Amino acid sequence: MDRIISVTNLTKTYKNTPALKGISFNVKRGEIFGILGPNGAGKTTTLEIIEGLRVQTSGQCAVLGYDNISESAEIKKKIGVQLQSSKYFNHLSLAELLELFASLYGKKINPVEILKSFDLEGKAAATVKELSGGQKQRFTIATALAHNPEILFLDEPTTGLDPKARHDMWQLIKGLNRSGMTIIMTTHYMEEAEFLCHRLAILDNGQILKLDSPQSLIAEISKIYKISFFTEDKISPDFFAEFQPKKIVLEYPKAIVETENFAALPKILNKLQKEKIRYSFLNVKSATLEEVYLQLTGKEYEG
Ligand code: ADP
Questions:
Q1: Whose CA is nearest to atom 23 of ligand 1?
Q2: Which H or E element spans position 263?
Q3: CATH of span 223-286
Q4: DSSP state letter for 84
Q5: Nearest to 211 by CA among 17, 31, 12
Q6: Least enclosed by CB within 10 Å: which of 26, 71, 163, 303?
Q7: Which residues have CB under 6 Å of ligand 1?
Q8: Ligand 1 atom nearest residue 37's Cα
């Protein structure tokens, strides 16, 4: 995969507030790259510098090989930026808005075709204020893509949505990415970061604390899977030996087995069933992104 965005030693100071203190990262073509961090971490500032909407205090940023300051006009043609839905003209229909956005880039489009892929075909004649929260968010992505850009920027795409609309949005984002769209997004939702992002930069106080895949970030703090259950049946440590556990605790009626081997989990359950050992309150636990975040930032996640 080639580098599509390249950020080097970026700093941004607003008056006397240092918002970014020298961050560097690359985004590869075809990935969903996430920036996760608390309010005030510098997420929006980072995106807006890359988008060519703000200018950094120092450092470099290149998008598709174009410099974000001297060649920002080129960048703007090739990126799609999700706007807040409140910023649309209220008297235009969805179809008219899409045509307007495409025409700003000199493109002609079929708005109904686009609305269809966002599950909004029945709303072509509606205005934005007639949409539900989830529909509004989907429409903001449709407008960002009306000129067929190469990179999509999403700033907290599911903030304020109910769980069903949030999950619909996740499917939409995954689908766009599967069809080849490179996506860079910010979020302060752990689950969202874990589910959507191929790689994740954890940003706090203007600095990247860690950058890796969610799986690797989690594995770095602990590779242990802990399976626990209650059983009234007799069970001996030998029962688990074939799974080469790291630790076994048998404190009647509770059994706890720890393993580094994810594949052992279903095998343990199979064996319990095959040998007709009755169990209840089954629980499987592993480290989470929330624990990673807490360990890195020293802050509880405020989701
Ligand atoms: P996030 O998106 O992670 O919430 P921001 O990038 O919006 O963070 O803000 C980072 C820091 O910069 C915060 O301390 C914020 O108050 C400050 N900041 C953001 N925009 C401005 C601005 N236009 N003028 C002054 N300070 C700003």
A1: 14
A2: none
A3: 3.30.70.980
A4: P
A5: 31
A6: 163
A7: 14, 17, 19, 37, 39-45
A8: 3
> Residue whose CA is closest, atom 21 of ligand 1?
14
Identity at 95, one-letter amino acid code: A
Q: Does domain 3-90+144-219 have CATH number 3.40.50.150?
A: no
Residue count (the chain)? 303
Q: Same CATH topology for 3-90+144-219 and 223-286?
A: no
pLDDT tens series, the chain, 303 aa: 488 999 999 999 999 899 999 999 999 999 999 999 888 999 999 999 999 999 999 999 999 999 999 999 999 999 999 877 667 888 999 999 999 999 988 889 999 999 998 999 999 999 999 999 899 999 999 999 999 999 999 999 998 889 999 999 999 999 999 999 999 999 988 899 999 999 999 999 999 999 999 999 998 888 889 999 999 898 999 999 999 999 999 998 999 999 999 899 999 999 999 999 999 999 999 888 888 888 888 776 665
Beta strand 225-230 pairing with 280-285: antiparallel
pTM for this entry: 0.86
